[in-house]
Amino acid sequence: MADSLDTPATEHGGAPSLRPYQREAVARVVTHFRHFDAPAVVVLPTGSGKSLVIAELARLARGRVLVLAHVRELVEQNQAKYRAYGLKADIFSAGLGRKEAGRQVVFGSVQSVVRNLGTFSDGAFTLLVIDECHRVSPDEGTSYRKVIDHLSQANPRLKVLGLTATPYRLGQGFIYHRHHHGMVRGDADCFFRDCVFEQPLRLMVKRGYLAPPVHRDAAVERYDFSALRPASSGLFREDELDRVVAGHRATPGIVAEVIERARDRRGVMLFAATVAHAEEILGYLPTGRAALVTGATAGRERERLIAAFKARSVKYLVNVAVLTTGFDAPHVDLIAILRPTESVGLYQQIVGRGLRLAPGKTDCLVLDYAGNPWDLYAPEVGSPKPANDTEPVQVECPACGHANLYWGRRDGDLVIEHFGRRCQGLVNVDTAEPALPGEARRTRQCAFRYRFKVCEACGAENDIAARQCHGCRARLVDPDDKLREALKLRDARVLRVSGMALEATVNGRGLPRLKVIYHDEDGATLAEWFALETPAQRAAFAVAFLRDHLRAPGSRWSPCTPEEVITEQHRLRAPDFVVGRQAGRHWRVREKLFDYTGRYRRAEVAG
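The structure assignment produced for this chain is given below.
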């Protein structure tokens, strides 16, 4: 890529001028690829001008450039921005009726390119840019991966850059491993290695680059999707959505309210749950002023309807999951959401359709009739939401001080539970000090684990889902094996824990003790006692009990008395199983299993 980024774009044939954050994004990409070949990501909110960043990078690149997108609208938009520099580029997209690949820069649809890889065998490409790169699957053999593998054969040092507003995939989490602010986001085997630049949505709105979203509570009955759970794919099943919305008595009132609130609005997009739902919605909208687009809408008809909407001869555009990306209609100033959204990413994509600036537009009204729990400005946690009542919580690492973001629960300002496993912070490999922003290299992930599985061979702490120790490579004992062996022993007792009780008591010498009693569904019990009188005893209690039992492990909570523990016992969790061994006339707790996912039934799923 070019060595200089100092020449303003406006000096090249009247090309568009880059905003400051766009210039910074370009500079970060160039710096990254000067030193590294690892695939990188730029995160820019919907409406922030990704096409212009792509055009500038294509202009600066020394070698051949291929820019991929998944829909022809994006292919066309991206090429148009490049042409604004007074430069020429080819288009390779069957949907646009063009299959040209001879020029230095080619804009193509992934579907067309992957079907014609032989066309891209001559003249090695140096840069591959993927728009909406969250669509790149981690699985080998998928369309994007086939293109990447093919281009890499001709050029092993191919640079791959992805751009997206939502850098996560359902079922995968974050699509990149490291963030330039010095933290780990996705797994170590993510295809994209580094997020080299991210522009927060809140900052875009604050600085006037996007129209502010204005949420209004609906004054009518809403849909209740709270009982629905996503399928294994991470998506809601259409038949289950239909059971909620089909012929729902709320629909006429909802549409009537949308029409009323849209009286002074210019463009309205309504997002429906299913095709049948969308058709019903369309029936309540003003005749001749509304249109419907679904995945089954024929190409030319879809183009005609979208053109009519953009020309404002149609005011209301109903759609079913087809206009969440690659759709640009800046005049949209009302978004009505009549469907549940599976992730904050999809929610951001939907609302983002109304955040682009337009003459005379002051804001975008957002009406949510589906009770979606997402905060538009909240960062993505990167893992599936474990329960409806959880929210993003910040958890400081006691080892490196990194402010982690996990799903969790609060009691006021206090985080009483979180579901984090390992600190997401990056630390310097030499000093173990927190990495500075931009120092992705010469770093490693902080080793502190909130939840872990201990290797019996070397004592190393491993992820709770690990099968092999990361330290000595020994096979980690399976929890089912532990339970199975314990059940064979005459002097062992295995409790399927259905409850845990705490008591403040005294020992035989009258000294205060905390008694912890575990009981199963049949009333059998096992107990253990702890002393908290001295600093050494409290430290032992923290290691032997608190570290495993805290619902928010890593919390800076150091109770000094049994009574203090009992008062705050809502911060504690019970194990799934407890194994006791007989010691004389008494039973001693020898093993406690947490986060159990094996073949034996847990007490909480009884019945």
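Interim note for the steering committee: The chain has four domains: 20-199, 205-368, 391-462, 479-593. Residues 389 and 496 are 26 Å apart (CA to CA).
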